[in-house]
Design goal:
Layout: E1 2-6, E2 9-13, H1 15-26, H2 30-53, E3 58-64, E4 67-72, H3 80-110, H4 119-140, H5 149-162, H6 164-193, H7 197-229, E5 240-246, H8 251-255, E6 263-269, E7 275-280, H9 281-291, E8 303-304
Parallel strand pairs: 2-3, 5-6
Antiparallel strand pairs: 1-2, 3-4, 6-7, 7-8
Length: 305
């Protein structure tokens, strides 16, 4: 269900989120449902604002029970620094706003600034509940699994050492395991005690979303490599990294070892480990994009040594 569009970004509600809000309203908790909706929306708008400041295009945001999923140009998030900033923006806003609201509400209530039956006290209670909703949403999204923001923060940190693809696989598998465990635990608890259906549904969402993130990773990595070919990097000095590739290797083998945010020099060796020559990451990426994944690394222009 499309909700509205803001600056070219569509905001829509997932059917599960609509069902959750409707169920809460039918159970007489309509105000809490509205507060939950507002907290999730603010969380996602923070992601959008952070992405746009970095020049990353955002296409759509889908609000879900556990938060939301922002569909944007993920090739811009392969850079660990960019992904860290965008991922942390949502939980940071929730935690700051939630902490301020909860603290203000508790302080005002304890200070006796409002009569027990007064409208102002009711407003303070509602704001306090909204503060705890923000805190809960922010903390939950910091769990280190996909597709939650904590998982993206872990991927950004891991990508600096093991590369984007390997980091995505690591955190994606953690998300699938967490989702499966949550869904199983929720199902068992529901079958025995009649509660836990929400945890089961949320676990299934985590499992599905983590799997989809892993499947999108190869395409995202290729788009990122394409971006590195156009305009020369602006930084006058970059951190470098040396790679060694045997003559039987392919450009795909080399590309999977590239680490975002670094420039790579590739030494090509023969079957005995002797250096034949060297090439740069640009030559490798050009061959991969223009000629395919199976091009041998010796088919890339390189300087003989």
């Amino acid at each position: 269900m499309n909700l509205f569009s803001a600056g070219g970004t569509r905001v829509r509600l997932h059917p599960a989120f609509i069902a959750l809000v409707a169920a809460m309203a039918l159970l007489g908790d309509g105000v809490r449902a509205a507060l939950l909706f507002a907290a999730v929306l603010i969380h996602e708008l923070a992601h959008i604002a952070s992405a746009r400041r970095l020049g990353i295009t955002t296409y759509e945001v889908v609000l879900m029970p556990f938060g939301g999923v922002a569909h944007l140009d993920e090739s811009g998030l392969v850079d660990p620094a960019a992904e860290t900033r965008v991922a942390f923006a949502g939980p940071a806003v929730n935690l700051l706003l939630g902490g301020a609201l909860a603290a203000a509400s508790v302080t005002a209530m304890q200070g006796g600034t409002a009569d027990a039956a007064s409208p102002s006290r009711a407003v303070l209670q509602v704001l306090g509940l909204w503060g705890w909703d923000h805190l809960g949403l922010g903390l939950f999204n910091l769990l280190p699994v996909f597709p939650l923001d904590g998982g993206r923060l872990v991927r950004a940190a891991a990508a600096r050492r093991m590369g984007f693809r390997a980091a995505t696989r690591l955190v994606g598998q953690a998300g699938e395991i967490a989702g499966a465990v949550m869904a199983l635990a929720g199902g068992i608890w529901y079958s025995r005690f009649g509660h836990g259906l929400g945890a089961m549904v949320m676990g299934l969402f985590l499992l599905y979303a983590a799997r989809m993130e892993r499947r999108r990773a190869p395409g995202t990595w290729i788009r990122y490599l394409e971006r590195t070919l156009s305009p020369v990097r602006q930084a006058p000095v970059e951190e470098g990294r040396l790679l060694v590739a045997r003559s039987g290797s392919t450009v795909k083998d080399v590309a999977l070892r590239l680490v975002p945010g670094r420039y790579h020099v590739v030494f090509i060796t023969d079957s005995r480990g002797r250096v034949m020559g060297l090439t740069g990451e640009r030559e490798v990426i050009e061959a991969l994009i223009e000629r395919g994944l199976t091009v041998p690394v010796t088919g890339v222009p390189y300087r003989r040594m």
